[in-house]
Amino acid sequence: MTTTAPRTIGSGHGLTYALLGWAMAYGALRLVWTVGPAPRFPPFGSDLLGFTGWRSVALCLGAGAVAVALDRTTTWRPALAGLAWIVAGALVAAAAILLPELVSLLLLAPGPSFDPLAFASRLGCATGAALLGLATFGYQRRTRGDCPDCCRTVHAGHRRSTPALWARWAAYVAVAGLVTRFAAQAVVGFDDLAQNASIIGLEVGLVLAGVLLPLALVRPWGEVWPRWVPLLAGRTIPRRLLLVPGFGLGVAIVAYFGMGMVQVASGSPSEFSDAFLWVAMSAYCLLGLGLLVASSDYHLRTRTACRACGR
Fold first, then answer.
1. How far apart (Å, rounded) are the C-alpha atoms in residues 212 and 138?
2. Whole-angstrom Cα distance, residue 80 to residue 4?
3. Are 135 and 22 in contact (CB under 8 A)?
4. Pick from 48, 52, 134: which is nearest to 95 by CA?
5. How far is 94 from 59, CA to CA, in rounded Å?
6. Degrees to nearest 5, angle at CA 29 with 26 and 31
7. Between 297 and 262, where is the model more confident?
8. How many CA atoms lie within 13 A of 198 on its CB side?
9. Max CA separation in the chain (angstroms)
10. Residues facing 224 on adjacent strands
11. How far apart are the first and last CA of the chain?
12. Domain map of the chain by residue range?
């Protein structure tokens, strides 16, 4: 339901100021690297993907402008929310290399192309995406629906106790994506991967994220600890334990391998064949999209009812 009654902006100003501060600081850095001699970072020559030079400056300016619009708009505007999510998604995509870098750092095995300055820049870009995402969430919460406490649009009493059919299919698609990815790797062999600790860690993590996590989002044992789990059997599983990795990994995987597909389409050189890259990266994208869809259903199905309206 769309409401036209104005609402107070409240505490959204602090987040807006933080986002504007980030846009000015990070935008200034991008401007300096655009008009002056910019450092070259391995292995691609730039710290960001796709959004380099003036495009990176424009992205920062766009994030700041959207932040002001979200703060000043007091009614629900789907186009504005959609634009905000697009800009946030572009920031995530630009910093997509953070995914393998974070894995390598967790394993204490950064690769030879790791550069601290490039890593800090990508982390700064991802920070802007996180701030804009929070600002967009706040805008939606203030303006959607007719309940000032939750702003939900569903009817009271319409709560599902079981996953939707589309969520189940999304989970199975995620698992199928991972199976397809490893099937493609089996065709070309695993010899080179067995010598890289960061890649091994990434693959092990993807097995957990591509099998256990999507199934947990749509199975009963994703809400209550199974009987075979010591000390926790029968207890309710905290929602964030699944939602944080579900949404976080889903976004990171789609951003990283989505940008990889853009690079393949643009003819970037690689040690692998284009056929293998298209199959592997498409499979990863299916995994990420499946996680996002299944996580969305898990969030809607397990959130607590609003005390004011019962929804």
1. 31
2. 15
3. no
4. 48
5. 10
6. 110
7. 297
8. 16
9. 62
10. 236
11. 14
12. 12-143, 165-302
Please tell me the distance from the alpha carbon of residue 281 to that of residue 300, in angstroms, as a whole number: 29
The amino acid occupying position 96 is A
CB atoms within 10 A of CB 147: 17
| DSSP state letter for 224 | B
CA 259, 260, 261, 263 dihedral sign is: positive
Peptide bond into 78 cis (omega under 30): no
Measure CA 9 to chain center.
26
* Structure confidence by residue, pLDDT tens digits, 16-46: 999 999 999 999 999 999 998 878 887 778 8
The backbone torsions φ and ψ at residue 2, rounded to the nearest 5 degrees and listed phi first, read -100, 135
- Helix 239-265 and helix 78-94: axis angle, to 10°? 70
Stated pTM of the model: 0.81
Q: Which of 91, 80, 21 is nearest to 255 (CA)?
A: 91
The answer to whether the CB of 176 falls within 8 A of the CB of 286 is yes
- In the chain, the amino acid numbered 258 is G
Q: What confidence tier does 102 reach under pLDDT thresholds 50, 70, 90? A: confident
Q: 179: which residues sit within 8 A by CB, 6+ positions away?
A: none
> What is the Cα–Cα distance from 209 to 211, expressed in whole angstroms?
6
Q: Tell me, what amino acid is at 261?
A: M
Whether 255 and 89 have beta carbons less than 8 Å apart is answered as yes
Main-chain dihedrals φ then ψ at residue 229, nearest 5 degrees: -90, 115
Phi-psi region of 45 (alpha: psi -120 to 50; beta: other; left: phi over 0): left
Backbone angles phi, psi at 221, to 5 degrees: -75, 0
User: For 191-241, what is each residue's pLDDT tens digit?
Assistant: 665 556 656 666 777 777 788 899 999 998 888 888 888 888 888 889 999
